[in-house]
Amino acid sequence: MQSPKLDDVAKLAGISKTTVSRVLNNRGYLSEKTIKKVYAAMKALHYQPNDVARQLFNKETKLIGLIFPTIANPFFGQMAYQLETRLFNKGYKVLIGNSKNDPKKEETYLQKLIANQVDGLIVGAHNKDIEEYNNANLPIVAIDRIMNKDIPVISSDNYDGGKKAMEILLARGARHIVHVNGPSDLASPAQERRRAYEEMMRARNLPAVTYTVDFNLSEAEKIKVFRKIFQNNKQVDAVFASNDVDASLIIKLAKEYQKRVPEDLLVVGYDGTDIVRLFKPELTTIVQPIEQIAEAAVETLMDKIAGKETPLKVVLPVTVHKGETA
Amino acid sequence: MQSPKLDDVAKLAGISKTTVSRVLNNRGYLSEKTIKKVYAAMKALHYQPNDVARQLFNKETKLIGLIFPTIANPFFGQMAYQLETRLFNKGYKVLIGNSKNDPKKEETYLQKLIANQVDGLIVGAHNKDIEEYNNANLPIVAIDRIMNKDIPVISSDNYDGGKKAMEILLARGARHIVHVNGPSDLASPAQERRRAYEEMMRARNLPAVTYTVDFNLSEAEKIKVFRKIFQNNKQVDAVFASNDVDASLIIKLAKEYQKRVPEDLLVVGYDGTDIVRLFKPELTTIVQPIEQIAEAAVETLMDKIAGKETPLKVVLPVTVHKGETA
């Protein structure tokens, strides 16, 4: 069975196609009788009004694109859920892309989303060097990523998060603290966590050692890097990891190196998603306010779409979830 | 600055709008000179070809809609990621909706996605009673949900999963085994897990006790139900939970009732996502083959879009992750 077309509705209603279009788009003068005829014909034919046709009149597509490294990661999964729910309530649908921090893939998404005429973008992915972001002529909001000077950045207070993690570890007597973070060339406010770590170590004349792992490494590749923490730092007594996935991998690995957590090794993670707090409540972690970040990102994007002035930076407070690992 | 329009490209290239359209859609005879002129003008203006205009010619939108209860849940998050990655490689973009098993919201999504002219749908949400699925005139594939008799269902072998969970618990000597699942009126193949549980209990003259919790209950509401497991079944020595989130909540609660896991209470979960196996490797769980399910769902949908015959049912094998909780 073929889908019914505008033509079929027009024929059944005994009205011109142009008039049916005007009814669908609520344009111009329309008698109640005409409107009723069109809706009766649509109902009889199970006709679904076509947004594509509508868009040609309205310009708005009511589509928002989201680009994240991967929604399989609980932080981005929870964030994408929170964003989508809020955008749905404002009448928007959401197109989603998992860029895996691959600049090529991110560029392709960006081109496709622009081609698809989204009304705006929320980007939690990687690469400041993608030229399209500058030429997009599109309302864009970034989450925890610095894109270019005109794109507002919503993030939590990453310096304070790093400071809170370090205060916990130092108070428990840790001195040989190792840090794990993403590559420092990534234009991410999360590098502020590293800055807090390094400043607090230096202030105490302690050596700062940071291991970097890229987000899109496989578990096996990450473990290869993390082995070096134990092999090259025999005295390591604490790890401050910049996300809970890495913290969990390090806890897994500690067993192999005969380090008991927390007796021999303290571990603090970062993000504190609902899922990690359910599955691993024993992990001490810095909790990002995901709902508030999502709320601020959507509000800022709506303001940009409406042509209003917006702040270039929104920084939200973090909290601590105290478990047993530190 | 206003976005450049097809008009602007046509003017700059000194060519009619129709011809520019034909170049964008690769239709009819076009000289190399014309093509080059159009692309040069597009580049100079940073013009992004508009899919909306294209769709009117091509009919295909290269959009696929996904409807899941919530991608904040690690099973659906990992599934949505696997689906999106595969669809991206086939040239599709993905529209996503979190229905929270709310039939009203699901219906709204469905109408919006149809209106947006998606080329197909993959649905892991709830409700067989939504009339639109029958009138959609659209290629649809369901994951672990029975929609109507014409919609192919991709799932893992839920009966075998239930059987495997029960075999583990019975072999460890458990006799007072309680089951947790979704409401039985849900048209879900996951009810096969319950059937395996009940049949294996009955075959041993053991009483079958199933507690049901709806997917969209809050953590607090679920815990209220799970308390009854401990309050009304003093002798309970094992729980077979139909997902890992519920299994984790029950393990959390067991402490309160002075039940040590696994000494006093064995627990088997279900799903075995990457995330639960990383965060909670000690949980014994039945592992669904998420990548294979995603692969089969995408292949089946592609076949439906191409007008090919497809199987009405694809059932994939489960495996066991042996942790310490059972």
From TrEMBL, chains A, B:
It comes from the Bacteria. Residues 4-58 form the HTH lacI-type domain. One of its GO terms (molecular function) is transcription cis-regulatory region binding. Keywords: DNA-binding, Repressor, Transcription, Transcription regulation. Residues 6-48 form the HTH cro/C1-type domain. The keyword Repressor applies. This is LacI family transcriptional regulator. The gene is scrR.
